[in-house]
Amino acid sequence: MSAMGQLGPLDVQLLRDDNIAVWSSGQDIYRALNALQQQAFDAFENVLINVIARSGGVISVKTAAHIATEMTVGLISPITSQLEPMKIGEIERAMAVAWEYGKRLGADPAKVYHLIYDYPSHSFVIDYEEAKDLFKSVSLFSPSDYMVEASIALLQVVAEQPIDLRMQNPEGIFIKLNLENEEEDDTPPEEPEEMSNDETETTTEQERVNQNHNVAT
I need a surface site. Which of 88, 127, 170, 195 has the fewest CB within 10 A? Predict the structure, then answer.
């Protein structure tokens, strides 16, 4: 891994039902539920304390809690009513796939959970220092590795096109230059000019002289 290299979390991507070729994170529903839970608790607590405080203790805690519950339910229920239980179950199963594969690869369950659930974005950067804490075998590029990286960057500049770098096998790296947009020269080849009759006769006479000279020699 180079010093400027980066990894990403195990963020499960799901195809959205209301869009074509648009993906969303499997964490979206969990983040939404956690946010609603926190908002509901904050709303209940705020109403409960304010009702008791502003009544000067006249309203009992039981009555204040009932008022706070009714207000919190009225605030949150229009949002929670839009949630689809089947969709939540589908997302939960997709998240479980990442979790089970991580365990089967022999990874630390705590680190698998961290990679799946604890990062806020699919594009969140895991740099070299953090990767060392997460994975057993992480090392910086060797000088030869940096030479390969520099060569690839140079080829990108020369080709002025993206380079598709694919590891086909451990024995070598195959580089494919995308030069499909390279302009082709459509100019037809130039046709030879026709010689006039005088030039043809002169050339023929000269060839005869050369032939006679060769025979005499």
Answer: 170
DSSP string, 140-164: PPPHHHHHHHHHHHHHHHHHTS-EE
Question: Taking 50 as the threshold, does the pLDDT of residue 169 lie above it?
Answer: no
Axis-axis angle for helices 85-104, 109-117 (nearest 10)? 140
pTM over 0.90? The answer is no
- Scanning 5-104, the segments in alpha helix (DSSP H) are 28-54, 61-80, 85-104
Tell which residue, 115, 106, 116, has the closest CA to residue 133.
Answer: 115
Q: Is the pLDDT reported for residue 143 higher than 80?
A: no
Give the count of beta carbons closer than 10 Å to the beta carbon of residue 170.
Answer: 6
For 97-142, give the DSSP string. Answer: HHHHHHHHTT--HHHHHHHHHS-S-TT--B-HHHHHHH-SS--PPP
Q: How many helices, marked H, and strands, marked E, lie in the chain? A: 7, 4
Does 61 have pLDDT greater than 80? Answer: yes
Instruction: Examine the pLDDT at 43 and tell me if it is beyond 90.
Output: yes
Q: What percent of the chain has pLDDT over 70?
A: 71
- Residues 177, 157: Cα–Cα separation, whole Å: 11
Determine phi and psi for 190, rounding to 5 degrees: -75, 135
